[in-house]
Amino acid sequence: MRKYLTIIELFLRSSHFYSGVRLSFAVVIPLVILNFLGLFEYAPPIVIGAFLNAPGDIPGSLKRKVNAILISAGLTMLITAIILFLKPFAFILIGALAIISFFISFLSIYGFRASLVSFSGLLAMVLAFAIQKETAFEIWSHVLLMGVGGLWYLIVSYVFLKLAPNKDANQLLSETLHTIGEYLRLRARLLTKKADRETLMQQSIVLQTQITEKQETLRELLLLERKRSGRSHYDEKQLLIFISTINIVELIEAKHLDYSEIDALFENNKGYLKASKKLNKKMGNHLITLSEILIQKDKIPSKDLLLEALQKARGVISTYVEDVTLPKAREGALILKNLFDYQEQLFQEIRAIRRVMANVKHASKVSVKRQEESKFLTLQEYRFNVIIQNFSLQSTLFRHSLRFTVAILFAYVLGTLLGIHNGYWILLTIVVIMRPNYGLTKERSKDRIVGTLIGAVIAIGIVLVTQNTIIYSVLAIISLTMAFALIQQNYKSGAAFITLNIIFVYSLINPDALEVIQYRVIDTVLGAGIAVIANYTLWPSWEALNMKHVLLTMLQRNTEYLIATQKLYHDKTEAELSYKVARKEAFLAISNLNGAFQRMTQDPKSKQKEYRLLYDMVTLNQTMISGIASIGTFVTNHQTTPASKEFDTIILKIVNTLRAATAILEDTNFTEEVSVASESSNAEKKIMEAYQHLSELRDRDIKEGNTEIDTETLHHLQEAYLMANQLVWMKALSENLKKATLKYDAVLKERMHA
């Protein structure tokens, strides 16, 4: 029971619910005030204007919010005027419908916020069919009042932002901490669940993508806006927590373990891994608890359980050495030690978050300098040239716009010919659920239909019990709030509340509510069916065909990240900024690759071309970025010896191999010097010999009875082990990645000539 109460409390305190309240306030207040003044006939267009301009009001900088709402207001007014004026001219109207559908949906090329402005425009196009205005004066009056509604919503949004300026950032920080906590718990299971690893790895792909998306929005919220307006003490706290989440994610990615090696070493001794697994789970759970406290403002829990788990994980290393004995235990002990070091660093980041949340004085300092902040922001390009570049069938969004336009025209003509009651609901369903890729459209169609049926059943029950208009009014407001609060988090639930809202609003106008419910369900099913069929048959965008560009970008970013890490090893002070920027770009690239692969898995099985090869390439890229992060994290957190010539030689070999793989996808020539290959083989031998030499020195100490090891020697041994094994491993990875790329390129060329 307590768990459910916590879930309800977190929802009611969330920015999602706050957004629902904000929209309801913007919609209800004009109705109440104008009704009180006896001017209720002016209320509907103002309410429509407010409602249509809410989608673009998403977390981000104030300037971008204002621009999005103003552009949305102008766009919705223009589209509404065009549709209303052209209604009497059927053929011209169809032409206008086609042009608006295509070009407004095509605006999505400018990013997520632009796609929401586009959605507002398309929504205005559909709702215009529900508006009955005969004269030019009536039309212009309606359009101008819609503009007033848009400005009214802008004022409401600004006031709500000032009342709770940190709500969006807090919510995103909370969700980021929660998702990272889940990711840590999943990584704990990966350690010992050999049979489930592939499934768990696919789940980790989803979580990684979610984390990166949230962190990108947080960058805009915490860096771009604060750069313009300055930072308060609370802003500094949020930025510190955000920086810790970035460090935690890098640490997690850096510890991409060679599970086959772990299975071989601990096949019959998995008990030695249990302490590390338990520590990961406890840290994951602790992050989830902190994510809830960030919203609830409760007391920070004790860290005693974490300290106890950390101590047990440390103790297991000594136990393992005693049980297996040196030198046989060295390799396993170094793996356990490296794993413990990584978990100890994770604990320190969690502790840093705890200190910030507990308002510990001088807990930490913000490490991002003002002049460097822009380097960490991913700015959307808004030039007209972007349209030109995407204006071809090669563009996924161009094909989507064509597909969407045909679906809208077909639905409109079908509804007109069949005389379907409220036929624009079919168009509305298509606008709401149709997405560029088939899998998401199919999923949203299913959720929309199920949500509509659930909403319809609930509405029928309420309508049969009462015909009280006051109850309908109250339920309409509540359902609107809940619909807008849930639509991004749980589409099925959001669809149910949208259905409830529409039914109760229509029930206030039309006493025959059951008829409204019947048409609502039929039109939703028709719209969903048209959307899915159109996605499958008209210029389909199967994700497998779009993977080449994403893979190419990933190879380029991994190469840049590796070079930046090499420079960091040589000079931490000078190369730190470029390293962090390269790391951010690489993590964004792997998130995009993971997202593309995830979308591919939602396509029909017959369209998942070369699934196994692409899965291997995603995994190889994921492993490569983890290998690079492993070196970068070690260099950042330890006092290292000077980078050796052998290190640079092997890095050059890996870089050349990655560039060769890039050239294959770009269909260009890249010739590696023969000497680089031979020099890297010699460097590989020398770097392994350096580790073996340190190991032999340590063996000699043990034989002489010097079982204790000083910190400096231990760190040198760890560094030698990490660099030797990691570089050899990454060199093999890069070669496997090149082979896989060759195979993938051959498949693409074969497909083109088929």
From TrEMBL:
GO cellular component: plasma membrane
Major location (coarse): membrane
Keywords on record: Cell membrane, Membrane, Transmembrane, Transmembrane helix
Domain Integral membrane protein YccS N-terminal residue range list: 71-323
UniProt superkingdom: Bacteria
Domain (Integral membrane bound transporter): residue spans on this chain: 411-533
Disulfide bond in keyword set: no
InterPro entries registered for this protein in UniProt: Memb_transporter_dom, YccS_N
Intracellular or extracellular location(s): Cell membrane
Transmembrane segments: 21-40, 66-86, 91-109, 115-131, 143-161, 404-427, 448-464, 470-487, 494-511, 517-539
Keyword Membrane listed: yes
Mode of membrane association: Multi-pass membrane protein
Pfam family, one: FUSC-like
Family under the similarity heading: Belongs to the YccS/YhfK family.
Protein name according to UniProt: Uncharacterized protein
